[in-house]
Design brief:
Blueprint (H helix, E strand, L loop, with lengths): L3 E4 L4 H14 L4 E5 L7 H5 L3 E3 L5 H10 L4 E4 L5 H6 L1 H22 L2 E3 L2 E2 L23 H20 L3 E2 L1 E3 L1 E3 L12 H11 L3 E3 L7 E5 H13 L11 E2 L3 E3 L1 H11 L5 E3 L3 H9 L7 H7 L7 H15 L1
Parallel strand pairs: 1-2, 1-4, 2-3, 4-5, 5-7, 6-8, 8-12, 9-11, 10-14
Antiparallel strand pairs: 11-13
Helix pairs in contact: 1-8, 3-5, 5-6, 7-9, 7-12, 9-12
Bound molecules: 2-amino-3-ketobutyric acid.
Length: 316
C-alpha cells in the first residue's frame, strides 16, 4: 500500500494532485503537506490527513515521513519563474536547499521522490523547435538554474544512493481550480477567466511567442504514471520532456473565440515575462516519455478550451 506525502499540497498543481492521489490510493494514505499561511481548506482539508511540511525544515520533514510511514514524496515546493527572478535567493532556498532536505529524508527512509522540472530548464541556446530530450540546458533565469540543478541533484541521489527519483519537465499548466502565481505561462490561464467574466484581456506576451502547454488532468496523469512506471523501462529519470500542445497568444485567442465569439484581446507586453518566454522552447519532443512510460496526453487546445470555459462558467 502506498503512503504518500505531497509537499506544496495547496499550490496550483498540489491541490489537484493531492485529490487525484486520494481518489486512487485512499484519502487516509495521502498526506497534504502545507506551509504556514497556506493551510488546506474545504475538500482538501476534509478528505485526508494534513501536516505542516516546510521543505526548508529538514527535521519537520523527517518527523512527518516517519509518523506516516511515507514511501513516496511528491515535492512541489518551488517559486515560479517570474517570482524567482525577483527573489532569487528565496528561489534557491526553497527549490534547492529544500530539495536537498527532501532527498536526504528520502535516502534515510527509503522513499521514492517526484520533483518537477520545467521547460524553464532550457534557455536561449537550446534548439527551440522540437527541443530534444537530451540537449543544451543553459538557462539564464534563477528559475531555470534551480530546475537544471533539480534534475542533476535528483539524478545524483539516484546514481549514488539508489533513491528512486523521477521527474518531468512540465510546460505551462492550465487549470480551472487553483490559479498559478507568478509564472511566465500564467497568461494562458488568466485569459480564460477574462473570457468567462466577459472582460477584455490584455496579453503580457507578444503574438508569435510559442510555448508548450498542458491541461491539468494530463499533468496529473504525467506525474502519477511516471511514478507508477516499471523502473526497468526507464532510460531517463530527471526529467522527461512532456507536452500536450504548443500555441502563441493568437492561437489560444482564436480557440476561445470559437466558444466566446465576442471576446476581445489586446497586447501590453511585459518585458520580463517576454524575455523569459522568448528563451524557452517553442515545442518539445516528448518521444522519450512516450516510449519509456507510455505518456500520451488526452487534451488538445480545442478540447481543453471547451472544458475550461464550461467549468469556469459553472463556478464563477
Ligand atoms: C512558469 O511559467 O514559471 C511555469 C513553468 C512553465 O514552469 N508555469
Amino acid at each position: 500500500m502506498k503512503k504518500i506525502l505531497v509537499i506544496g499540497a495547496t499550490g496550483q498543481i498540489g491541490s489537484e494532485l493531492t485529490m487525484e492521489l486520494r481518489q486512487r490510493y485512499g484519502g487516509a494514505n495521502v498526506v497534504a503537506g502545507y506551509i504556514q499561511g497556506a493551510e488546506p481548506k474545504g475538500e482538501l482539508r476534509e478528505s485526508g490527513p494534513m501536516e505542516l511540511a516546510d521543505v526548508t525544515d529538514a527535521n519537520v520533514l523527517a518527523q512527518v515521513v516517519k509518523a506516516h510511514q511515507i514511501d513516496t514524496i511528491y515535492n512541489l515546493a518551488a517559486l515560479l519563474s517570474v517570482v524567482a527572478e525577483n527573489k532569487p535567493k528565496l528561489a534557491w532556498k526553497i527549490g534547492i536547499d529544500g530539495l536537498w532536505n527532501v532527498l536526504e529524508v528520502a535516502r534515510e527512509a527509503g522513499c521514492a521522490v517526484f520533483t518537477p522540472s520545467s521547460i524553464g530548464s532550457f534557455g536561449a541556446s537550446t534548439p527551440h523547435v522540437m527541443t530534444p530530450q537530451d540537449t543544451v540546458q543553459r538557462p539564464r533565469t534563477m528559475y531555470g538554474v534551480t530546475k537544471v540543478t533539480t534534475e542533476l541533484l535528483s539524478d545524483y541521489y539516484s546514481l549514488k544512493y539508489g533513491v528512486d527519483t523521477r521527474s518531468v519537465r512540465f510546460p505551462g499548466i492550465i487549470s480551472n481550480v487553483t490559479p498559478p502565481g507568478g509564472g511566465t505561462t500564467d497568461y494562458a490561464v488568466d485569459i480564460y477567466y477574462s473570457a468567462v467574466r466577459g472582460e477584455d484581456f490584455v496579453c503580457p506576451i507578444q503574438a508569435g511567442t510559442y510555448m508548450d502547454m498542458m491541461y491539468m488532468p494530463d499533468a496529473l496523469h504525467a506525474a502519477i504514471s511516471l511514478m507508477e512506471a516499471d523502473p526497468t523501462r526507464l532510460i531517463h529519470r530527471n526529467g522527461f520532456n512532456v507536452t500536450a500542445m504548443s500555441f502563441d497568444p493568437e492561437g489560444i485567442y482564436a480557440a476561445i473565440r470559437k466558444v466566446v465569439p465576442d471576446f476581445k484581446m489586446s497586447y501590453q507586453v511585459d518585458p520580463l515575462k517576454q524575455s523569459i518566454a522568448s528563451s524557452w522552447p517553442d515545442s518539445l519532443d516528448d518521444s522519450c516519455a512516450r516510449n519509456e512510460c507510455d505518456w500520451k496526453p488526452q487534451y488538445d487546445l480545442d478540447k481543453m478550451t471547451v472544458d475550461m470555459i464550461e467549468k469556469l462558467k459553472a463556478r464563477l
